[in-house]
Design goal:
Elements lengths: L1 H22 L15 E12 L2 E8 L10 E7 L5 E8 L6 E9 L16 E8 L4 E8 L7 E2 L6 E5 L3 E8 L4 E8 L4 E7 L6 E6 L9 E10 L7 E9 L2 E9 L4 E3 L16 E6 L8 E6 L13 E2 L1 E2 L3 E8 L2 E8 L7 E6 L3 E3 L2 E3 L6 E9 L5 E9 L2 E8 L4 E5 L9 H5 L2 E5 L7 E8 L2 E6 L4 E6 L8 E6 L4 E11 L5
Parallel strand pairs: 1-20
Antiparallel strand pairs: 1-2, 2-3, 3-4, 5-6, 6-7, 7-8, 7-9, 10-11, 11-12, 12-13, 14-15, 15-16, 16-17, 18-19, 19-21, 19-22, 22-23, 24-36, 25-36, 26-35, 27-32, 27-36, 28-29, 28-35, 29-30, 30-31, 32-33, 33-34
The protein binds beta-D-fructofuranose.
The site of beta-D-fructofuranose has 13 residues, from β1, β5, β10, β14 and β18.
Length: 495
């Protein structure tokens, strides 16, 4: 039976792979960020690692290229960069949509969903959504996520509320039990529950309101994150998503309460860009360092971006650690190393000083670039990407204000007024030994920028015209130096 399911699933995966050949060449299609072959996608769901395979489930509309009929799509990868899309994992049924949630590997079969000693079930914990009720439900798989059954005892956690969603479960070794972080969106609270079998849940505590209350809270994730440079030492980090941005809290979890370190009183953001939301992590990686993936889009205009037959991609997977800057704990994010395997031949760009603009020989909107900028006190300057027809995307540093920013005001944005109104994003940033170090990934319609050693990140979507492929350094004041420049065109992960 299992064999025939496997063959059938590989047949479908093969079919999707064949479609990918034709599909993954469209305008704006990211070549090294995951996107579904067809149709709408939002949040990453059920990030779980089993037997060398990373599973990525995602909010998906199997019937169309806008939000609706929410179900869980499914893709797998060995390196988090090359993905194979598999058939739909969890489908909307009887008017109940499958909203966001997590998946765990139930090693000890605490749920009794496996009836064979040598099979460890994967268990999905998701929000069963109707117009009047959100409650938490289970589904399980005994064939490594190829096929799923919804639990007959669903829902397993029901407060009879309209808004109560996005359960994120992990194994808490110290008390040998499962812990769930789940959102009470309207209250700006994350509730923590515990369970021995994933089926019965007991309230532990509530966290919040705190920090950014600009939108309802969604998609929590509580995880243990290594402290940079202190092997074996960790802090606990809580993610929430609200209103198209995210925030994180750093503190301690004692098995009952999550307590934020007092020093952290300002709002901390995983990403300062326009398009990063609902990020959650792989908790059970082999080296115990969580890896996050976020949705690269923005609810303000997500349904209207000019891509077809798919909509939305996932961010690059980011390895997480924390470090202390002054009295403050901050999150450090670095894209996974496997990305380096996609680099084509390194192209040399010489050190240079620019007081107006320098058009580089490099053209094309799929590359990775590292460089240092030595800003000048009286200048705003930086890099322009996707340059052409008077259009460009700007990454700039304003030395007088000690601000790094992105600005897409000069890009093609005719498709949506809301998109056009969200152009500029900033973050405070001081130079380090007089320099700003930038690590930029451009992937057709996605730009990710890592700076300040991974403590400041921007993710943004951009939709340049066909001939808008240029690259420039610029300064609007006195001379800015650009040095230590590394540039690689990138191979596609799909072909
Ligand atoms: C976040 C979210 C979740 C919800 C899902 C529905 O983007 O609103 O709270 O479960 O999307 O698709």
């Amino acid at each position: 039976m299992y064999k025939s399911i496997l063959i059938l699933s590989l047949f479908f995966a093969g079919k999707i792979a064949a479609q990918q050949q034709a599909l993954y060449k469209e305008t704006y299609r990211p070549q090294y960020h995951f996107s579904p072959s067809k149709n709408w996608m939002n949040d990453p769901n059920g990030l779980v690692f089993k037997n060398g395979t990373y599973h990525l489930f995602f909010q998906h509309n199997p019937f169309g290229n806008v939000w609706g009929h929410m179900s869980w799509g499914h893709a797998i990868s060995k390196d988090l960069i090359h993905w194979t899309e598999l058939p739909l994992a969890l489908a909307e049924e009887n008017g109940i949509m499958i909203f966001s949630g997590s998946a765990v590997l139930d090693k000890a079969n605490t749920s009794h969903f496996s009836n064979s000693k040598d099979k460890q079930p994967l268990v999905a914990i998701y929000t069963a959504h109707t117009d009047t009720l959100q409650a938490q439900s289970l589904a399980f798989s005994n064939d490594d996520g190829l096929t799923w059954k919804k639990f007959e005892g669903n829902p397993v956690l029901d407060l009879n509320k309209k808004d109560f969603r996005d359960p994120n479960v992990f194994w808490y070794q110290a008390k040998r039990q499962w812990v769930m972080a789940v959102s009470q969106p309207l209250e700006h609270q994350i509730s923590f529950y515990a369970s021995n079998n994933l089926k019965q849940w007991k309230l532990l505590s509530n966290f919040g309101p705190s920090g950014d209350l600009s939108g309802v809270w969604e998609c929590p994730d509580l995880m243990q994150v290594p402290i940079e440079g202190q092997p074996g030492k960790t802090k606990w980090v809580l993610f929430t998503s609200q209103n198209s941005t995210m925030q994180y809290f750093v503190g301690e979890f004692d098995g009952t309460n999550f307590l934020v370190d007092k020093a952290n009183s300002t709002i901390h953001k995983q990403d300062y860009g326009t398009d990063y939301y609902a990020a959650v992590t792989y908790h059970n990686t082999t080296d115990k360092q969580p890896i996050s993936i976020g949705w690269v889009n923005n609810w303000e205009y997500a349904n209207t971006i000019p891509t077809a037959p798919w909509k939305s991609a996932m961010s690059l997977p980011r390895k997480l650690s924390v470090k202390k800057i002054g009295h403050d704990w901050v999150l450090v994010q670095q894209p996974v190393l496997a990305l380096e395997n996609l680099r084509l031949i390194k192209e040399n760009i010489s050190n240079t000083t620019v007081s107006k603009e320098l058009i580089l020989a490099q053209k094309g909107n799929s590359f990775e670039m590292e460089l240092n900028m030595i800003p000048s006190k009286n200048a705003i300057g930086g890099i322009k990407l996707a340059v052409g027809n008077g259009h460009y995307f700007e990454i700039g540093y304003d030395a007088a204000r000690e601000i790094i920013f992105i600005d897409r005001a000069k890009t093609n944005q005719s498709f949506n007024a809301k998109y056009a109104s969200i152009n500029r994003k900033e973050a405070s940033l001081k130079t380090k030994q007089g320099k700003i170090k930038l690590h930029i990934y451009f992937d057709e319609s996605i730009i990710e920028i890592y700076t300040a050693d991974g403590t400041v990140v921007f993710t943004a979507q951009v939709f340049p015209g066909k001939s808008e492929t240029g690259l420039e350094f610029y300064s609007n004041g006195s001379a800015i130096q650009f040095e230590n420049i590394h540039y690689w065109k990138m191979k596609s992960s799909w072909f």
